[in-house]
């Protein structure tokens, strides 16, 4: 992959929560490891009336608060802050853009723009940037999620951006793709010979993908009320994980080869009818309960009013192609769950015949667990014989073959997803960014589910905070004789 680094980075939303917690610490991390282009100048922008010195103070405080202690090196921080300048700008005001262009200056050496702002500002931003010459052939643009709330709004955003930037200069973020373990799914599948022969409907019984959070609404009421669990987590992160599990082997590790295969998976997702959603989806909303011993309020109480927004969703999905015919993909995500966890569990088919039955030995089907959060590991659950003389029968037990990425690569620094993604944006590698056709196929699938909910008047079922969601979510898999991988 030919790297094509830019000379400047323009960061909108430079005073926001994401900038403080993730973007500034990530840029610093890259700087400290000498991974940023030597002369890379970073211009921050938001409405707040700061000057360069004021923004450097702001950034220093953010680094103080959010950098782990072992990453804080005074000399590197001082050096990093020198890269930063600031230009106040209100993206909804056309007059804002000329002073911004003056501040950014010459972009012939390449400019990467990162829009870490609410999506309703994407359109005026892109139009304004174009008008003042900040959208030419040397400029690329990164967009934070959410990219719309349905297919129509996502097309509108995509059309607006496409009017100014061609697809090969648009970088749509799904920060899950920046996670090391997520990229490891590709290595696991395509860097080892033994999984691929059974990685299909003949070898795999079902796939489960869980993203469970323990947090509640936090201070995201405005956004979450217009999104809900299906659109906030499942449409993007969970479907991206599903695509990496289900895709055909790409011929090369390069942007179009990988994204072509993912897009094919999204296009093969079975679109649900209004009838389907009744049996294949479950929605929930948390009521008061206890999470890790702490008493917490219900969603309505946190919000201060009644709401029909789902804070939990479970879906039985299907990828309708040759490889995955008949294999259910059970997907679920929710807030205020028992524990924080992102995990993929691939359950293989049972052995065709057990020779242990006559001796009392019971077999479990093998399961491959890919844990993404909070720990990072891959575990293959295999059957083993318990030691003993077996005079009362053979005792068999499921034991884990462990690959702990945390332990195995202890010396290597674990980078946060945004370090990887910002560096790829700066260097122009689109592999881990989401292409337009992927986003639109994801929304097509989601819209069908939401239309089904609307047609059936589906309202979320209550579940106490600190549980794995409504009991109907358990029934969703148990009906098929499958149990969620919850340990
Ligand atoms: P935030 O804390 O509300 O920050 C928004 C930023 O945009 C601030 O810097 C704000 O500064 C600036 N801004 C607001 N209105 C503006 C305007 N009219 N013109 C120019 N700048 C404006 O939001 P955030 O949490 O950082 O999130 C930023 C984006 O990332 C959002 O699209 C969000 O959905 C997405 N995202 C965030 C997270 C997260 O963990 N925080 C995770 C995933 C995705 P001023 O008020 O000073 O203008």
Describe the structure.
There is one protein chain. By secondary structure, the chain is an alpha/beta fold. It folds into 2 domains: 8-144, NAD(P)-binding Rossmann-like Domain (Rossmann fold); 177-414 and 435-478, 2-Layer Sandwich (Dihydrodipicolinate Reductase, domain 2), CATH 3.30.360.10. Helix content is 36%, strand content 20%. The protein has 16 helices and 17 strands. The chain has helices at residues 17-32, 52-66, 74-81, 97-104, 122-131, 151-162, 180-190, 221-225, 229-246, 255-268, 274-280, 299-303, 405-408, 417-427, 436-456, 471-478; strands at residues 8-12, 41-45, 84-86, 111-115, 139-143, 170-172, 204-212, 281-287, 289-291, 294-296, 312-317, 329-334, 341-348, 367-373, 377-385, 396-404, 461-464. A hairpin with a 2-residue loop joins strand 9 and strand 10. The model has no long low-confidence stretch (mean pLDDT 95). Bound molecules: NADP nicotinamide-adenine-dinucleotide phosphate. The site of NADP nicotinamide-adenine-dinucleotide phosphate (NAP) has 23 residues, from helix 1.
């Amino acid at each position: 992959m030919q790297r094509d680094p830019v000379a400047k980075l323009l960061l909108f939303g430079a005073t926001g929560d994401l900038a403080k917690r993730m973007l500034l610490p990530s840029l610093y991390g890259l700087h400290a490891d000498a991974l940023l282009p030597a002369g890379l100048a970073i211009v921050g922008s938001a409405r707040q009336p700061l000057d360069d010195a004021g923004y450097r103070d702001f950034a220093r405080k953010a680094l103080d608060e959010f950098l782990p202690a072992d990453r804080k090196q005074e000399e590197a921080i001082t050096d990093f802050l020198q890269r930063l300048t600031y230009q106040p700008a209100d993206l909804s005001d056309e007059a804002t853009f000329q002073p911004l262009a003056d501040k950014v200056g010459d972009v012939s050496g390449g400019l990467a723009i990162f829009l870490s702002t609410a999506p309703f500002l994407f359109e005026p931003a892109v139009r304004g940037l174009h008008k003042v010459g900040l959208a030419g052939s040397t400029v690329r643009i990164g967009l934070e999620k959410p990219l719309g709330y349905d297919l129509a709004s996502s097309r509108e955003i995509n059309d607006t951006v496409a009017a100014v930037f061609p697809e090969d200069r648009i970088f749509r973020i799904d920060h899950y793709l920046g996670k090391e373990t997520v990229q490891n799914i590709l290595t696991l599948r395509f860097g080892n010979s033994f999984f691929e022969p059974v990685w299909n409907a003949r070898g795999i019984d079902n796939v489960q993908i869980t993203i469970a959070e323990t947090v509640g609404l936090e201070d995201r009421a405005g956004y979450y009320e217009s999104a809900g669990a299906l659109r906030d987590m499942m449409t993007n992160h969970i479907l991206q994980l599903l695509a990496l599990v289900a895709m055909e082997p790409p011929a090369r590790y390069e942007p179009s080869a990988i994204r072509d295969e993912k897009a094919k998976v999204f296009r093969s997702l079975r679109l649900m009818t209004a009838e389907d959603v009744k049996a294949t989806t479950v929605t929930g909303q948390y009521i008061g309960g206890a999470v890790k011993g702490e008493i917490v309020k219900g969603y309505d109480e946190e919000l201060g009013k009644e709401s029909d927004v789902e804070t939990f969703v479970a879906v039985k999905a299907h990828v309708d192609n040759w490889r995955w015919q008949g294999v259910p993909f059970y997907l679920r995500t929710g807030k205020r769950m028992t524990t924080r966890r992102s995990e993929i569990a691939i359950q293989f088919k049972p052995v065709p015949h057990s020779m242990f039955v006559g001796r009392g030995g019971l077999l479990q089907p093998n399961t491959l667990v890919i844990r993404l959060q909070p720990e990072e590991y891959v575990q293959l659950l295999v059957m083993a014989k318990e030691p003993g003389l077996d005079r009362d029968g053979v005792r068999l037990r499921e034991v884990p073959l462990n690959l702990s990425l945390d332990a195995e690569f202890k010396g290597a620094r674990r980078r946060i997803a945004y370090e990887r993604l910002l560096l790829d944006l700066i260097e122009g590698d689109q592999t881990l960014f989401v292409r337009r056709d992927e986003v639109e196929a994801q929304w097509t699938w989601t819209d069908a589910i939401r239309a089904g909910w609307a047609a059936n008047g589906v309202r979320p079922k209550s579940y106490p905070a600190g549980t794995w969601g409504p009991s109907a979510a358990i029934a969703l898999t148990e009906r098929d004789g499958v149990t969620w991988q919850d340990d």
